[in-house]
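Prompt: Have a read of the protein record below and flag anything odd:
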Amino acid sequence: MNTVAREHRLMDSDWFQVLRKVLTSLGVILTTLFGLLVITFVVGRLVPADPVISVIGDQADQAAYDRVYHMMGLDQPLWQQFLNYVYQVAHFDFGQSHLTKNSVAADLARVFPATIELATLALIIGTVLGVPLGIMAAVKRGSWFDHIARVVGLVGYSMPIFWLGMMIILVFYAYLGAIPPGGRVGIFYEGLVEGPTGFQMIDAALAGEWDLFFNALHHLITPALVLGYANMAYISRMSRSFMLEQLNQEYILTAQAKGLANRAVIWRHAFMNMRVQLLTIIALAYCGLLDGTVLIETVFGWPGLGQYLTTALFFADMNAVLGAVLLIGLISISVNLLCDVAYRLLDPRTK
């Protein structure tokens, strides 16, 4: 009877621990979202750009200015403006873009898939190349391979990404003609497929338009390689550091002393124990790619979130700027949440 009671208490305790972790995670997410809303709201008010002027222009009379000022709710107390802002964001209403005359939500839904395509392919390139490069550099520490890998990583990590993009355009487009001009697809393919997902290659494949698919891939691969190289440099450096840390652990020395094959020691033991650290780096790299696309999309004329944000900043379209920044913040929070879930699957100690 006492055993059954202890089991029930243990089960109740486990459920309590799970509930506490869920509530804690939810509280952290809500607090982060609230902080993000506060930051975007304050930035929108501190930026030295008059939102009324950006709507009606600087030639309007005072009566028109006052009318629009009132319509935008700028005559209300600051706390009420913030509550209105939170209410609008909760209903996915980011206001209207003064530049495109569309709702910011509709604009973001149109441009964001292009950024996801670019950032995801760049992450795949950086991870597939960077992780093995860093691991092999750690295993062959001090060799010529390690030195080359470190130089490649140092150059990619320190080189300005926009400069690299412009040099590639100058050489491979202007002189060699090996890459297409800017844009997401060729001019003859514009508007050929308006699919449900917004992802050009997926929609082209679903529609059976394989010429469009390969044309979109041709346009995507160059900016993705530029972003992927910078991403690979960061991931390879961190992978090398993590692997060196694992190779110096006692359990690795014990496995080697027992005669375990070197391949099994590296991939079955050392790599498995650095997975959580590596996952953190990859998640941070993906969030960084969403920011890095601002420069690359501008250089390559890629019609994504980065180019949209740059144009909005240039024309002081603050509704579009705040909507884009808030979206990037939400994606970063979501990626970190998924990363936390993956921790619990990969590392039993976190359960």
The two ends are 29 Å apart (CA to CA).
